[in-house]
Amino acid sequence: MYDTDVTVWSPEGRLLQVEYAMESVKQGSACIALRSSTHSVIGALKRSVSELSSHQQKILEIDDHLGIGIAGLTADARTLAKWMRNECLNHKYVYGTAMPTGRLATDLADRHQRTTQTYVRRPYGVGLLLASFDKNGPHVYQTCPSGNVYECYATAIGARSQSGRTYLEKHHEGFDGCERDELIMHALRALVGCVSGDGELTSENGSIAVVGKDEKFTLIENAELQPYLDRLELEGGNNGGGDDEEEKEEEDAMET
After folding, report:
1. pLDDT at position 254, please?
2. Which among 198, 179, 177, 201 is positioned nearest to 190, based on CA atoms?
3. How far apart are CA 179 and CA 202, in angstroms?
4. How would residue 26 be classed by pLDDT, with cut points 50, 70 and 90?
5. CA separation, residue 76 to residues 126, 155, 184, 191 (Å)
6. Is the pTM of this model over 0.85?
């Protein structure tokens, strides 16, 4: 009875619909982000509904200096991405410069939070990772359906993301001095542990985006991603993880 509306508190002091929205992020396919002193990188696993369908897009460009990775309801992510693009365009029109990532991340978190206080609205069921390079350098931010926002050196969200997070925690101290390609390899190594069952990270289900100093936001997929995967294969690191229970949760999930 306490989860019929987002504005109703449970006796334990919880907003259950917000917690449900956060659970949808945990069921979305994994997405990771990390940064060095010169670049920010997003990596994501893409899902397809069946063998006859294409893979869903997991990384979206917002501006030349900024992009997002998503875990959760794709439709909600598209709505937020459209709003973020408009904010960046308006800022560039008024001030003549790219919108600072920190300001956009805070405004995005406020937009998330408003849905937790408004009657007859539901929280956005999607978590976003923002990767950018602006006048203050590279940035990685994580947002949550509850309205929280965090700036990170590296982070991971989505199903089986704990494996990727463990890798990032183990190696993050060395990220600062990484060159562009080495940072991309770290992203792929972190993603490998998030692949379900006996699956492998491939050019079809993997996606990488990079932005940095003197480099606009660039999406690396399909044939462009293959050389990095070949390098990963030579290292002997392209083996999926996960267990049957986690794989069943992925199949039952309605989002990407």
Report:
1. 53
2. 201
3. 23
4. very high
5. 6, 21, 27, 23
6. yes
Give yes or no for a contact between 31 and 156, defined as CB atoms under 8 angstroms apart. yes
Please give the DSSP secondary-structure letter assigned to residue 147.
S
Sign of the Cα pseudo-torsion (84, 55, 226, 230, in order): positive
CA–chain centroid gap for 227, Å, is 23
Give 143: exposed, middle or buried? Use CB within 10 Å, 0-12, 13-18, 19+: buried
Short-list 237, 33, 9, 29, CA closest to 141: 33
Instruction: Record the tokens describing residue 65, joined without a space.
Output: 């200096």
Q: Residue for token digits 């397809």?
A: 48
Measured CA to CA, the distance from residue 74 to residue 112 in angstroms comes to 15
**If you average pLDDT over every residue of the chain, what do you get?**
88
pLDDT score recorded for residue 245: 47
Please list the alpha-helical segments (H only) found in 115-234: 161-171, 180-192, 226-234
Structure tokens given for 13: 């002091």
Q: Where are any strands of DSSP class E within 73-228?
A: 126-134, 137-143, 149-151, 154-157, 206-212, 215-220
Question: Does an H or E element contain 178, and which?
Answer: none
Helix 101-114 × helix 74-95 angle, to 10°:
130
Q: Confirm if 128 and 116 have CB atoms less than 8 A apart.
A: no
Radius of gyration of the chain (CA): 18
**Distance set, CA 150 to CA 26, 127, 172 (Å):** 17, 12, 16
Token digits of residue 141: 């931010």
| Cα 212 to Cα 67, 143, 149, distances in angstroms | 12, 21, 22
Closest CA to 41 of 196, 230, 205, 228: 228
The backbone torsions φ and ψ at residue 255, rounded to the nearest 5 degrees and listed phi first, read -120, 175
- Mapping DSSP to helix (H, G, I), strand (E, B) and coil, where does residue 213 land? coil
